[in-house]
Each structure stands twice: as C-alpha cells, then as structure tokens.
Amino acid sequence: MVEAVETMDGWYSLHDLRTIDWTAWKLASVEEREEAIAGFEKLLTKWDAVEEEKNGSHVLYKIVGQKADLIFMFLRPTMEELNDIETELNKSKLGEFLLPAHSYVSVVELSKYRPAKDGIDPETLPETQARLKPILPKWEHICFYPMDRRREAEENWYTLEKDVRGKLLYDHSKTGRKYAGKVKQIITGSIGLDDWEWGVTLFAHEPLQFKKIVYEMRFDEVSSRYGEFGEFFVGNHLPNESVASYLKI
Ligand code: VOV
Fold it and tell me: So where does Fe-coproporphyrin III get bound (predicted)?
C-alpha cells in the first residue's frame, strides 16, 4: 500500500485579501478617515507586539491588479486567534471600508520525506521549529497562489510510492536552492482546511524572480506532471509607516 508521508505542522495561517471601498472612503469625513487610520495603526502595533514576543507573525502587501487591494498573511498558534484577528479587523473603523476579496486557511507544513538522521526526530530540532513558526520576511514583494498535486489515471501523485515522491521533491528542492537569497518560500498545507492542497507564499526583493522560479519549476517533474495551480496574487510591501499616505485622499 502507498504510504502517506508524515507532516510536521506549525502555526496556522490566514491569507486575508480585502478590497477597499474607495467610493465610501472618499465620501467619509476627514475625522472618520483619521479615526479609521489611527485605529488600524493601533492594530498593526498590537500585531507587531505579538511578533516581537514570537507568538505569531504577519505581513501586509498592496495587491497589484484588480483581484484585491490588500493582502494580509497572519500566522498564529491557533485557529481561534486567526478568527479573533479577522473579527477585530471587521469591527474596526477601517473595516467599514473593507470588502472581502478572498481568503485562504492553511498551516505551515514541512514533510518527513528524508529518513531521520542519527535517529533524531527532525521535529525536535530548533531549526525545524523555527521553520514551522517563522517570522515572515518583510521583503519588497509577495506572490501567493494555491496548488494541488494531480490525481488522474496517468498522473496520480497519490499512487506514487513514498520514496519516488521524496526523490521528486528532492529534485524540486535543488531548483529552489538556486534562488537562495532571492526567493523565500513558505509552504502551508491546506488539505481538509481549504479548497486546494497547499498554499505557496513567496517573498522576493525583485518581482521578476517570481516569474523565473515558477517558470523554472514548471519543468521539474513534480510540477510538470503532478502540479495544478490556482489563482496568483502579487503585491508590494506596505510598511506601517506608509499606511497613512497610502490611504490619504
Ligand atoms: C524557494 C525555494 C524552494 C525550496 C528550497 C523548496 C524546497 C522544498 C523541499 C525541500 C520540500 C520537501 C520537504 C518539505 O519541506 O516539505 C518542498 C515541498 C514543497 N514545495 Fe518547495 N521549495 C521551494 C519553492 C517552492 C515553490 C516555488 C513551489 C511552488 C511550485 C511551483 O511549481 O510553482 C513549491 C511547492 C512546494 C510544495 C507544494 C511542497 C509540498 C509538497 C508535498 O507533496 O509534500 N516550493 N519544497
């Protein structure tokens, strides 16, 4: 029987995409807008404090194109906390001007394809724990998309033996390693949590690197034969200190 791989799972993840209701925002009074911005900055400060304490992490980017205006990615130890964040944002003054655009629920995931070295469970290693509970990079650009592994008669990932899948992912990692320092990936598993099987979140200093890595990986067998992809979202970093000028009318 084909064996499932054991996964190591870390912080829960919420990608929360919002569109700004610019018409309502422009019609709001100066005082209302100021209140909304100040309240939102307070939320950002609160989330920063959580990150400082290493109890979670978050990033905020401006989406390029019409799919949404903003993408938040939140990581927290529990799903309840993700719910709380979402609700707090909805109840905030700025929330009155945010329309839901898209969301994605998943959990930071690493898999145990490689045999344990010296009998040590990799999950116990501090470096593994740091990858399962990552502080998200605040690099200039983000690219997020969901993906599946194919399950068709000829190309079925789920009928491949574990060692074959491990070898294909090893080849995949060799392509990935060429982008060290240029692209940082956070893979989140979403089987049973959302509509696709994985979320792929990439960070880069240079947006062209997204095109280059995704294109190069299309030729890796794990993607060319077994990859199916959803909608792509690309954005530019929105640091706290630029929020007010971004929202200024
Ligand atoms: C930026 C570089 C980079 C690097 C170094 C890297 C390495 C690795 C390693 C070592 C492993 C396997 C073990 C583990 O850690 O789980 C993975 C696993 C995975 N990857 Fe990856 N990946 C990268 C990057 C990277 C990209 C750009 C994509 C999107 C693929 C594309 O075609 O658009 C991707 C996808 C995945 C997925 C969906 C999984 C889980 C698959 C599963 O079936 O379990 N990944 N990945």
Answer: 131, 145-149, 172, 185, 223
